[in-house]
Design a protein that fits this description.
By secondary structure, this protein is mostly helical. Residues about 1-20, about 35-60, about 410-415 and about 420-425 have low confidence and may be disordered. It has 21 helices and no strands.
Length: about 425
Amino acid sequence: MQIRRDRSNLHFGRQARRRWPGWFFGMWMVTMALVILMTIYFEDVQSSTMEIIYGTATPTTSAVTLATQAEAAFQAGDLEESVNKYRDAARLEPDNLDVVFQFVRALIYRSFAGRNYAFLAEEALAVAEQTVQKYPDDARAQAMYSLALVENGRSEEAIAAGIRAIELAPQWAEAHAYLSMAYRAQGRYRQAIESADRAVELNEMSVDSKRALALSLAFVGEFDLAIQAYNDAIAIAPRMDALYFELAVYYLAQENYDAAVAAYDQVLANDPANVKAYTRKCEAYFRQRDDARAQEACEQAILLDNTFPEAWRQLGMVQYTRRNYEGAIESFETCAEIQEARNFALDDREIECWYLRGLAWYLLNRCDEAVPLLQESLIMSPNETVERLTYEGLSFCAEKDPHFDNSIIPTPIPPTPIPPEPIGVF
């Protein structure tokens, strides 16, 4: 037998080199080339891989684009969207005062949607304060500060800021408009009308100027002229709901209930889910003594938003008038619970949800429930009518309880309690 020594595994010293096939070296070269390319272009490859996994990356929207979208939403009447877009734009460019000015303005108008939205006026003031501290010599900063101060009950400071804005930009209509609003809040009606007239003269297409004129005219009882000014403003901005709500107030002052309801219906035509519009319709029908339609409107408001305290307050008033005292108590209690949960200041609460609830308990012969509520309402800055009715309820309960402390009842009490009409523009 022949021994094949070239295939023997018995080698002494250096082992013979094994020969690799040619295709192996080809594969090796391709692999090394790919490794080199991936090393060089790692970031691009990683980016492409991430896009495959997570989808194509979305470029960051610019502040200008966001502000443009915010203004379009404002003109369309979508103030919530407008506020959100302006807020994002202002975060991207906090030193763009055109954007920040419009952001503060949008916050103020959105805050008119109801007491649940009062925090937006506070946010507007915080933004304006920061801006005016950084740019004290910019008219936009001073003007937005003036507007925010007015809506936060600081009218004297608002006047100073408005005057400074006009010194910096004498021909700017909005600066005169906000100064007019500040004068009105201070009860200085002549200066309010003069400043509003000047604002309109400078820019007849300024919504804020027309609104300032309407507010100042209404302040002196010129309701027809105020209504005309509001209609002029609405012609410029037909989807701004604040204009309709304020217009309706002066129709109600003239007892033109149909016109007031028509104003609210226009809001609902623009925004069918507007809770405030249904609540105000309820109030208008209530004043007109159309309790059935009033209750229907209030219940629709609550169906849309059961956290809207004004709707519960007004529903309770309708139920109270219809002698549904148990139902009224439930509605007033819900109204009170919402406000307490949100820590509303005492003088900002819907006082009807306390004193009328107390009177309803009295009428159900439950003075043990009535007296604490009536006493609590006395520390909530009641007006003269509310105070008188509250003392009347306490007097009735005192007659039933020989141990009642009569010292808290300072004056004689008039007859049967009648709930007063809601008070205030908003």
